[in-house]
Design a protein that fits this description.
It is a single chain. The protein is mainly α. It is built from four helices and no strands.
């Protein structure tokens, strides 16, 4: 059922707040609109390394990179974050369904 603010609510469900929070984060990440298949030809280890590098660099250091490198690193970060959020949402939804299903 829908509650105040459009969030999903179910009695006894402790997953509602995290679920809504993750949905909002995923919407924010998707609003960047990275092209589909952007990293299709990139090895997962390389993509993970780019994401990790972007995650630890200070914004001031990121600005010192050539524009192409900064965009690449940030795109890798956003791409991987979208995948993580999607996986987490699936897990939360499965937990919610199993937690609320009749015995």
């Amino acid at each position: 059922m829908r509650g105040v603010g459009g969030g999903l609510h179910h009695r006894g469900s402790g997953c509602v707040t995290p679920l809504v929070s993750k949905i909002r984060k995923l919407e924010a990440v998707r609003s960047i609109e990275l092209p589909d298949g952007l990293f299709a030809d990139v090895a997962p280890k390389v993509l993970a390394a780019w994401r990790a590098r972007a995650a630890v660099e200070a914004p001031s250091h990121m600005r010192t990179h050539p524009r192409e490198l900064a965009v690449l690193l940030l795109a890798a970060l956003v791409h991987e974050r979208e995948r993580e959020l999607t996986d987490t949402l699936v897990e939360l939804l499965i937990a919610t369904v199993h937690g609320t299903a009749p015995p």
